[in-house]
Amino acid sequence: MSETIPTVGRLPVVGSALEVGSDPFDFLEGAAAEYGPVFRVSIPGLSFVCYADAKLVERALVTERDRYRKDDRERDLLGGFLGEGALTARGERWERGRRQVQPAFTPGRIAAYAEEMVGQTERVVGEWADCEVIDVHEEATRLTLSIVASTMFGLDSLEEAGTIAERVDAITDRFAPSRLPVEIPLWAPTPANRRYRRAAGDLEEIVDRLIDRREPGDEDLCATLLSAMEAGEITESEVRDQLLTVLLAGHETTAVALTYTLASLATHPAEYDRVAREVRSAGELSARTDLPRTDAAIREALRLYPPSYLLFRQTERSDTVAGYRIPPDTRVVCPQWAIHRDPRYYDAPTAFRPGRWSKDRERPDFAYFPFGGGKRACIGRRFALLELRLAVASILRSVDLEATPDTEPSPTPALTCRPDGPVPLRVRR
């Protein structure tokens, strides 16, 4: 057993900062190819070990999960905002919160959301004019916010959608790397930190207003949590924390995934035509509608552009992986981005090829994990996948979307793998 984990870039003081700052995504792919499945990355203020291998990710998330916990850094960065929500809570509070949120995400409840998902999509698409060039990321954000508001909060309209999107931009941009990435604590009075704190406060106030506006008697997540609060099972602050988490994570990651799916299809006309033909011959859209080509396109977009591109853990106890001893309290990163593009698991790994999912090829389970995995896998996974397939189907059966010379999205590694600017598509009716 070796004690020395290979370290990427050993420059004095700055470590790997220059390489990470130049192109974080390229850095992850290159480091995995050069250093193997386990390597260390250091930048000023932060050091972690990367598990760039599907079997090692499975070990950290499933088979040896008792040796690992959620990374303390995640709670330090987001806990002040999301409190005891599903993303940041620990231990018994997480278990209790999960039990309270679960009823909103059962298969039966998710199927019941289908009509609302289709209706909200048709409303947004109905506002697009023939020959108009839309920013598909902006429109996807508006749509997913509307769907969260209607299904989780029981609201028919969301006049705060623009404000929420702006505040979420400030939250996510706080985590975008600089050219010389240095881990800056949240208490430091930087412009990004000030914007983050203002945005977090504004979103808390918006959630309070959404709670006040909801109609009594609705069977949505908000109603479920308020009933649990009235029964003394959870506190008022826990209700707000869960709803904040759903509002942020429930729309942002899905908007990003929808953006990349539509942009990838528009820039690959043959794939676009296959999906368009399928959805236009599918009949009424529901949770049961069979859309295999659509599902494959979404799956492929999530492979190439996973909204959550890094998953963080921390060792509770020591572990031995790939011949290296990983001491307790070591930060561990499981990189969806690098593993999803690893040639060991995928032919032509950087190509958009939805057809790869219809072929019989054995891959390790965690060669693909856009929603995480194990005990703390994303509780909204089925909701998000249904929302994506119904949104894509509703859009492409109503309009054609054409790529422009500027359509190719350029991902940026902020809190999510969101585009670094507008993603234009031309609407044809």
From TrEMBL:
Keywords, sorted A to Z: Heme, Iron, Metal-binding, Monooxygenase, Oxidoreductase
Taxonomic superkingdom: Archaea
GO molecular function, one term: metal ion binding
A Pfam match: p450
PROSITE patterns: CYTOCHROME_P450
Region (Disordered): 402-429
InterPro entries per UniProt: Cyt_P450 (IPR001128), Cyt_P450_CS (IPR017972), Cyt_P450_E_grp-IV (IPR002403), Cyt_P450_sf (IPR036396), Cytochrome_P450_monoxygenase (IPR050121)
Cofactor: heme
Extent of the signal sequence: none
Family: Belongs to the cytochrome P450 family.
Name of the protein described by the UniProt record: Cytochrome P450
